[in-house]
Design a protein that fits this description.
Distance between the termini: 53 Å
Largest sheet: none
Number of domains: 2
CATH architecture of the largest domain: Orthogonal Bundle
CATH class of the largest domain: Mainly Alpha
Mean pLDDT: 87
Number of strands: 0
Length: about 290
């Protein structure tokens, strides 16, 4: 009996110690996150005005306090176009591959090989993806282009959607699949009408994570769409983007340009937040 009581006390102490470690780690993470957001708001809000959204980059105005300020309209439009195209290209491919791995290729050699390649691609540095697209698309096409940037972002999207789709479909009980098939429904109908509906919140989360990742990517776009300082919607030419504009202006050394870079970082952060909130609200209303 004494041994059992001593063992119980030791387990309680270990549980309390682990709980305090978890709380301390959570508090430390929240402190870092809050400090980043506070710095972003402090530095970004001061430079955020309508000129940021409506004007293009105007290098001749910086350093002159009386001249009209330039903005990030060209970069915002370019980022929206490339991010939307990258998501539209990568999401269906990732969804179909994840469905294949979860529903058709469990335990098969081909499924394991596809899963391994997807995991490698998921952890690969984004600059390698940019270099791959540069060699396979930019050089043969004879120059940088918005299409190349969108393709690089799509390649980044694919493994994220593959992993989340497979994981969410794997969590669905097999009894649910058997019940639907037992009623006479074909397998494809079971997947599209039942499995997808049950896994929809997790799949949407994966897509949102992919969007959040590609929205802030700089390295692959430097090697593919390269960026420019004018507003352009021509996907066959170099195209501006917010990450590249932030990178260039933050390293310019001019206080005005650095302030605009902070405003761009704030736009990216709250843009991703807005996408997440809207998607959650729409998803909740549908379910």
């Amino acid at each position: 009996m004494a041994t059992a009581r001593a063992l119980g006390r030791r387990r309680k102490r270990a549980d309390a110690l682990l709980r305090w470690f978890c709380l301390a780690a959570t508090a430390l993470g929240l402190i870092f996150l809050a400090s980043i957001l506070a710095t972003l708001l402090w530095r970004g809000l001061g430079a955020l005005d309508w000129a940021v959204f409506t004007r293009e980059f105007e290098p001749t105005t910086y350093g002159d306090p009386d001249a009209p300020r330039g903005g990030l309209a060209h970069a915002i439009v370019g980022s929206l176009i490339q991010t939307a195209l990258g998501t539209l290209i990568g999401t269906p491919i990732g969804l179909l591959v994840g469905t294949y791995l979860a529903e058709y290729a469990r335990g098969t050699a081909l499924g394991n090989a596809v899963r391994f390649v997807s995991d490698v691609l998921l952890s690969a540095p984004s600059i390698l993806i940019g270099l791959f697209v540069y060699q396979s698309v930019v050089l043969p096409m004879g120059g940088f282009s918005g299409w190349a940037g969108a393709l690089a972002l799509a390649i980044i999207v694919i493994p994220v959607v593959v992993r989340t789709t497979e994981d969410m479909l794997t969590l669905i009980p097999n009894t649910l699949r058997e019940a639907v098939v037992g009623l006479g429904a074909p397998r494809w109908k079971m997947i599209t009408l039942v499995a997808y509906r049950a896994a929809l919140p997790g799949i949407v989360t994966g897509v949102l994570l992919a969007i959040a990742r590609i929205t802030g990517e700089t390295a692959p776009l430097l090697l593919t769409s390269f960026g420019n300082s004018v507003l352009s919607t021509d996907l066959g030419r170099s195209m501006a983007s917010l990450p590249i504009a932030i990178y260039q202006q933050a390293n310019s050394g001019f206080p005005d340009l650095i302030a605009i870079a902070w405003a761009g970082a704030l736009i990216i952060t709250f843009g991703v937040l807005a996408i997440n909130v809207v998607a959650r609200l729409v998803l909740r209303a549908r379910l």
